[in-house]
Design brief:
This protein is of the alpha/beta class and about 290 residues long. It folds into 2 domains: about 180 residues, NAD(P)-binding Rossmann-like Domain (Rossmann fold, 3-Layer(aba) Sandwich), CATH 3.40.50.720; about 80 residues, Orthogonal Bundle (N-(1-d-carboxylethyl)-l-norvaline Dehydrogenase, domain 2), CATH 1.10.1040.10. Helices cover about 45% and strands about 15% of the residues. Strand 1, helix 1 and strand 2 form a beta-alpha-beta unit. Helix 1 crosses helix 3, helix 2 runs antiparallel to helix 3 and helix 8 crosses helix 11. The longest helix is centred in the first third of the chain and has 17 residues. About 45% of the residues are buried. The mean pLDDT is about 95.
Length: about 290
């Protein structure tokens, strides 16, 4: 296999396209909003330039990766000849179902269809296609070009051949995949959201400043990054949607979103992508 299509050119999608191209795959990137495609390619270019400046990449490899990415105006154009399609759009089940129904019509029967959902049921998403076995979860982490983990999420009807293909693709991208069952929040979101929401409650209660709460986890427990900084990188709107979903699905009080999170999202303070969340962020490409 040599062709990957990425549906969605936002925070996650452009990062997935970048690591796909670096892995040597011909990569098509599309989005329902045509105006975001060129900026997404610019962000990829900036990330690759940063890798060259830091000595992580040589110039030829960066240029070759950028040359493997093409911008596609439609899902049909992006995914029609792809071996693997990776959906990376908003965490809305209706939107995802509509996209997978469309992919079912335009993709080759042998193509693997992956969803980057961080909390929604992969099995339910798979119901949108005529061959549910070819749908697999492929949950990347932000920033995609740095974070090593990919959760490969299986479901009751998942075809082992498509699961194996997704695992191989993740490894080719330089990631460390783990295989988890299709349960609410999988492994990472279920654990990470609890830490993040409790840290937010601590800010809300005046226990400590965000930087000090994060430092407690970083220095006291060896976390490379504290839960509030992670939440800002993920996007507070995304964190809120995941928490609400897990609270509905599991009913446990630890998943109830705190008022401070709802207030920040309502104010448009969504984290790094808007320049303000629990931290203040510079306005530059991630």
């Amino acid at each position: 296999m040599n062709a990957i299509a990425v549906i969605g050119a936002g925070t996650m999608g452009h990062g997935i396209a970048q690591v796909s191209a670096l892995a040597g795959y011909a990569t098509a990137l599309t989005d329902a909003r045509p105006e975001v495609l060129a900026p997404a390619l610019e962000r990829i270019g900036a990330n690759l330039d940063g890798g060259v400046e830091r000595g992580k990449l040589d110039r030829a490899a960066a240029d070759a990766a950028l040359g493997r990415i093409r911008l596609a105006a439609t899902i049909e154009d992006a995914a029609g000849d792809a071996d693997v399609v990776i959906e990376a759009v908003v965490e809305d089940p209706e939107v995802k179902h509509a996209i997978f129904a469309q992919l079912d019509r335009v993709c080759r029967p042998a193509a693997t269809l992956a969803t980057n959902t961080s909390s929604l049921s992969v099995g339910r998403i798979a119901r949108a296609v005529t061959q549910p076995g070819r749908v697999v979860g492929m949950h990347f982490f932000n920033p995609v070009h740095i974070m090593k983990l990919v959760e490969v999420v299986t479901h009751d009807r998942a075809d082992p051949a498509h699961v194996a293909r997704v695992l191989a693709v993740a490894r080719a991208m330089g990631k460390e995949p783990i295989e988890v069952k299709d349960a609410p929040g999988f492994a990472s979101s279920r654990l990470g959201v609890v830490l993040g929401l409790e840290a937010m409650r601590m800010v809300e209660q005046g226990v400590a400043a965000p930087q000090d709460i994060d430092k407690a986890l970083e220095l006291g427990y060896g976390h490379p990054m504290g839960p509030l900084r992670v939440s800002d990188l993920v996007g507070l709107d995304v964190r809120l949607a995941i928490a609400e979903h897990l609270h509905r699905e599991l009913g446990d009080p630890q998943y109830a979103p705190p008022a401070i999170l709802r207030a920040k999202v309502a104010a448009g303070d969504l984290g790094k992508k808007t320049g303000r969340g629990f931290y203040t962020w510079p306005n530059k490409p991630s």
